[in-house]
Design a protein that fits this description.
single chain, alpha+beta, 2 domains, two-stranded antiparallel sheet, 10% strand, CTDL_fold
């Protein structure tokens, strides 16, 4: 059993749909200590010849700050995919997928240990089936991410010192400037920073998980 949801203290993340904490009883489960890396996903694709939904659609969204000028110009061109109206820092980019995370002129060179991106729920489920696993439920994920802590805002407890030594997140004026105080402008290795008490890496920060 464990607590899920946010604690009762004010939070700037309440707009993200966080709910008041509640106690749930969850059967024991296992979870991998890291997100799926590019190298792991590459083995899956090699064994199955799987095509992700981004590959089938032939485009995906890219964060502007991480894209090259050529990619930005392609997205904003008259025949380009344009941007999300409510979140214009996300650009539709032809040719963006897990092997080309910032668009067709990018690559995975030196990023084999970074998390695979441009992965839909269906893609993640297909990988899990191949690996003999399944996606965690929301409650399972939150329990794993908390690392046994309750009523704390972070996997390491409270924000008692500079959090940028513990997670990869945006630092600066979003979406135009990222100071990279945590060491990364974009995603970092799946095992960057210390794990939580359950041995889970990057329970907060880096990339969004399914």
């Amino acid at each position: 059993a464990g607590a899920t949801g946010m604690d009762k203290r004010p939070s700037s993340l309440s707009r993200d749909g966080a709910k008041a904490a509640s106690h749930r009883r969850v059967p024991a489960f296992r979870i991998d200590p890291t997100a799926v890396s590019n190298d792991q996903f590459k083995r899956f694709v090699r064994d199955t010849q799987y095509l992700t939904e981004a590959e089938n659609f032939r485009w995906s969204f890219v964060l502007e700050l991480t894209a090259s000028n050529a990619t930005i110009n392609q997205s904003d061109a008259k025949n380009g995919l344009g941007r999300v109206q409510a979140s214009p820092w996300w650009m539709g980019v032809f040719g963006a997928y897990w092997r080309k995370p910032e668009g067709p002129d990018s690559s995975l060179r030196g990023r084999g240990d970074h998390p695979a991106t441009h992965i839909s729920w269906n893609d993640a489920s297909a990988y899990c089936k191949w690996a003999g696993r399944r996606l965690p439920t929301e409650v399972e994920w939150e329990m794993a991410a908390r690392g046994g802590l309750e009523d704390e805002p972070f996997p390491w407890g409270d924000a008692d010192h500079d959090p940028w030594t513990r997670l990869n997140a945006w630092e600066g004026e979003f979406p135009d400037e990222n100071s990279a105080r945590d060491g990364f402008v974009g995603p970092g290795p799946v095992d960057a920073y210390a794990p939580n008490a359950f041995g889970i890496y990057n329970a907060l920060g880096n990339v969004w998980e399914w």
